[in-house]
TrEMBL record:
Organism annotation: Paenibacillus cucumis (ex Kampfer et al. 2016)
InterPro entries: ABC3_permease_C, Membrane_comp_ABC_pdt
Membrane topology of the entry: Multi-pass membrane protein
Descriptive protein name: FtsX-like permease family protein
UniProt-annotated location(s): Cell membrane
Domain ABC3 transporter permease C-terminal: 259-374, 651-770
Primary localization class, coarse: membrane
Superkingdom of source: Bacteria
One Pfam family matching this protein: FtsX
Metal-binding is among the record's keywords: no
Length: 777
């Protein structure tokens, strides 16, 4: 009997049932996809790190290196399991050709290396250790994606005096330097080719790498290394930071997908509640008759529950199955950069459990709604025929029609005012639809805006010039500053020098701190708190350093300056999402022996000459890295932006789909409920088009309020949610850059257009309504 009633109910309400089924399926699909993406990301990172034997501690170093001193110290340190020194030949991008054009505009440091022999292996796309022969080269996957390279393509180096071509035989997955936010990339060549490069082109740089017996002692080991007076002309990177950097791009996307999934679950619950209450209301007299003739409340509940159990179960299973295919859209970037870890039971169990959670929530929610049966009295139900949830509220607002308003518009507005409680679901859906459409769009615009450079610890300027370490770097830096100072096309400029200082820790020993020195008022940053240092006794810390050191604005720390301890006051906290964001800024004299890099930022009087100026500075100060700031952003965040474009497109589609689905469901139920009123209107001469217009007006009134509320939430709660996602990567306070045409015109118009069409189609059933049918019923 249950199966027969289930079939009859499904046939009687095919449209409503199909809409609910699709909605639960969509929620299950996204929850499964989001959880699977998290599983793939974490397992792929672990697999990549395991197969490559990623080092636990890496000291980057430029300049002369006493390898014997490092080896002696490492062999005597009980924490060290393995160590090695990786030689890298740094190639100027202007001399590297990955096609017809050189990489002169790249922001990346290009390093040629050989395959490591003990650990820190560079893997190919099959997660195998790469081996190349003379004349062959393996290129980072970053360039596979950016330059659309293929096996067999040629890579050429030409600096005028030295020229050599290599054939691409593989692409490199590099646990240290995979992400675009890491501005270094390693190319693999053979040992004999690297010897030729040492003699013919480029500067030497080194990675001093260690694997420890106990990785949990990385902090203790870092202090020991820094206190031993070993080579340290470069930043320190640890295993934990490698994990954060590798997970940044896809971690952000996974978090956004999970957020959208949670919102969809909430909508699904409210939608089902509305549907069940409307169904109970429609069947109120039948329920009262069943209770009157002695059918138990438990049996009546089961009659209604079986439909939703069946629907939720089937939708959840199909949502999970669909996620197996759809997930490829989200994990393609993970598969490219980190490879696919061997599948385990958890890869299938966790998404299945997520879909199962949707099913469980639907069933439990249905059971909670069905408690309404306890309040149903057979006598009262037969007398009133109403559950009371959707009754008209009298005198909510005195709405008077005037000669300028048409009757359908007046009736639509009056209906909304009198039945506010009934329209709560539709209003909530429009608010959420606006929210999930606008927030990803605003986040995408923020990432693409020139002002996002401030979240990377860099002031906004037209051109940025980076000078890496060479034997004559100090002389080149002095010549660069002099030339810029005398350049009539330059409006303003700011030379900045980053060097290593010693900072006293809580134990009384000293750690290294990268500090940028210069005039920070020329290209100012936005500070989370406080401001830029104004005296040589003040220091500004990045958000990541502030959290690590447990310091806030106004606190003090001790630096070694010129060999003497100097107490510094934290003047401000700023955001930096690049290379882990462990930086600081102070007005201190720098030590030439501990300089990490030199940077000069400048603005031009006429941006029309920017391309020519970039070419001039590249030529005059080779191997300088000269980039415009927009190019710097695109190369650093290009992968994240492309992934977010996919999510934004998906969010727009979901927002529209939700609005269509719920509007259709809502209006079909409302027309069914208003069947008698519609029949009366038709009997007194109202045209079908006028009655339809009434329901369209009702939908648009709710849409206008919903879009307005959704926009306000997008600009208040939205930045808070995005900031929470980005806080792990060094930016804890994101301010949206809003395109008003997209956010305030195109998105609302898209929703309004779809709602009008949906409303007009959804109320076609009023054609079947007549006074004669009402009398017969």
């Amino acid at each position: 009997m249950l199966l027969r009633m289930l079939r009859n109910d499904l046939m009687r309400k095919k449209g409503i049932t199909a809409a609910l089924f699709i909605f639960v399926l969509l929620a299950a699909l996204l929850v499964s996809s989001g959880s699977r993406m998290i599983m793939e990301l974490t397992s792929s990172i672990q697999y990549l790190f395991s197969e490559s034997k990623t080092p636990h501690f890496v000291q980057m170093h430029s300049g002369d290196l006493d390898q014997a001193k490092v080896n002696t110290w490492a062999e005597g340190n009980a924490m060290v399991e393995q160590h090695q020194i990786v030689e890298m030949v740094n190639i100027n991008g202007a001399n590297l050709y990955l096609g017809a054009e050189s990489e002169k505009n790249t922001v990346m440091d290009i390093d040629f290396v050989t395959q490591n022999q003990q650990f820190d292996y560079l893997l190919n796309l099959n997660s195998e250790i790469i081996q190349v022969r003379d004349g062959e080269i393996a290129v980072p996957v970053y360039y596979l994606q950016q330059n659309k390279l293929n096996i067999g393509d040629q890579v050429r180096i030409n600096n005028g005096a030295f020229e050599r071509s290599y054939t691409i035989v593989d692409f490199v997955r590099d646990a240290q330097m995979n992400p675009s936010v890491v501005h270094s990339k390693r190319f693999i060549v053979s040992p004999s080719d690297i010897e030729q490069l040492k003699q013919g082109v480029g500067e030497m740089e080194y990675l001093i790498e260690f694997r420890l017996h106990d990785p949990s002692k990385t902090s203790e080991f870092t202090q020991a290394y820094q206190n031993a007076g070993l080579p340290n002309a470069g930043p320190v990177v640890t295993y934990g930071l490698f994990q954060i950097l590798n997970g940044m791009t896809d971690g952000i996307i996974a978090a956004v997908i999970i957020l959208v999934s949670l919102v969809l679950i909430l909508i699904a619950m409210l939608c089902i509640r509305f549907t069940m209450l409307a169904t109970i209301e429609e069947d109120y007299r039948e329920i009262s008759v069943m209770k009157a003739i002695g059918i138990s409340e438990k049996d009546i509940k089961r009659l209604y529950l079986v439909k939703y159990v069946f629907m939720a179960g089937l939708a959840s299973i199909l949502g999970y199955i669909a996620s197996l295919g759809v997930n490829q859209l989200f994990v393609s970037n993970i598969m490219l950069y980190m490879g696919k870890a061997p599948a385990t039971l958890l890869h299938f169990a966790v998404p299945l459990l997520a879909a199962g959670l949707i099913f469980t929530m639907v069933v439990l929610f249905c059971r909670a709604v069905l408690r309404r049966f306890r309040s149903i009295s057979a006598v009262e139900a037969l007398r009133t025929g109403s559950l009371g949830d959707t009754q008209i509220v009298r005198n909510r607002l005195n709405l008077s029609r005037n000669r300028w308003s048409s009757v359908p518009v007046f009736l639509g507005l009056k209906d909304v005012m009198q039945r506010v409680k009934m329209f709560r679901l539709l209003l909530f859906v429009f608010i959420v639809s606006s929210f999930i459409m606008i927030v990803p769009l605003n986040f995408l615009n923020t990432l693409q805006a020139p002002s996002f450079i401030s979240y990377m610890g860099v002031g906004q300027s037209d051109i940025r010039i980076d000078l890496r370490h060479t034997n004559d770097v100090e002389q080149r830096y002095a010549r660069l500053v002099n030339q810029i100072e005398n350049d009539a096309d330059v409006q303003k400029y700011s030379p900045l020098v980053t060097s290593q200082f010693k900072i006293r820790n809580a134990e009384g020993s000293y750690d290294n701190l990268s500090v940028e020195s210069g005039d920070f008022s020329i290209f100012p940053l936005s500070y989370l708190s406080g401001n830029a240092p104004a005296t040589d006794r003040e220091i500004a810390l990045s958000d990541a350093n502030s959290n690590d050191l447990k310091l806030k604005t106004g606190d003090q720390l001790t630096l070694q300056v010129g060999g003497q301890d100097q107490v510094m006051t934290v003047s401000g906290i700023y955001q930096d999402v690049t290379n882990g964001g462990k930086t600081a800024k102070a007005l201190l004299p720098y030590n030439k022996d501990s300089v990490l890099w030199y940077v000069v930022s400048l603005d031009l009087k006429d941006r029309g000459v920017m391309a020519a100026k970039i070419a001039t500075y590249e030529k005059d100060f080779s191997p300088a890295r000269v980039t415009d700031l927009q190019g710097y952003l695109n190369q650093t965040l290009g992968g994240t932006i492309q992934q977010l474009k996919l999510v934004t497109t998906l969010a727009l589609a979901i927002g529209v789909f939700i609005s269509i689905l719920i509007t259709s469901l809502f209006l079909q139920m409302m027309v069914a409920k208003d069947n008698n009123d519609i029949a009366v209107l038709r009997s007194i001469g109202f045209a079908l088009s006028k009655i339809k217009l009434k329901y369209v007006v009702m939908s648009l009134v709710i849409l206008i309020v919903g879009v307005a509320a959704g926009t306000i939430l997008s600009n208040t709660l939205g930045p808070m949610l995005v900031s929470g996602i980005m806080s792990s990567f060094g930016a804890s306070k994101i301010v949206f850059v809003i395109d008003p045409v997209q956010a305030y015109v195109l998105c609302p118009l898209l929703l309004a257009g779809t709602i009008i069409i949906t409303a007009w189609i959804s109320i076609q059933s009023i054609r079947e309504t007549s006074i004669s049918k009402m009398i017969v019923e």
